[in-house]
Description:
Elements: H1 8-14, H2 30-35, H3 56-61, H4 78-118
Amino acid sequence: MMRDGLSNLFEYKKGTSPLDPDSDGDEMLDGWEVDNDLNPTIKDRWHDRDGDFIPNVIEWALNWKPNSADSNRDNISDTAMAGIAVAKIIAVDLVPLCVSLRKRLKTKIRKIKINHAHNPW
């Protein structure tokens, strides 16, 4: 058994490589693809089997289900959850960064104006 969780016999029958945990090179483990009814011999990382606008490889990275538009069955679609995650990233990381950059930029502009006022050239 390899790191992809599939037995060598199963890999032989499916046409995947027991020596490569990602036989098709689509960045998703063969075992995860089999467990989620995807084909481990087809590069389908950018496919969107459940129509939630989230590609299979992103669902793999988030440990979501590529065959369900509501992976955790909480009545909030994966698309909405992804939107919430992006909003949190913007609010938590990007907004403070922008505020900090704006303050630093204002300080630099102020220094340039002061220096320019004292320098006739």
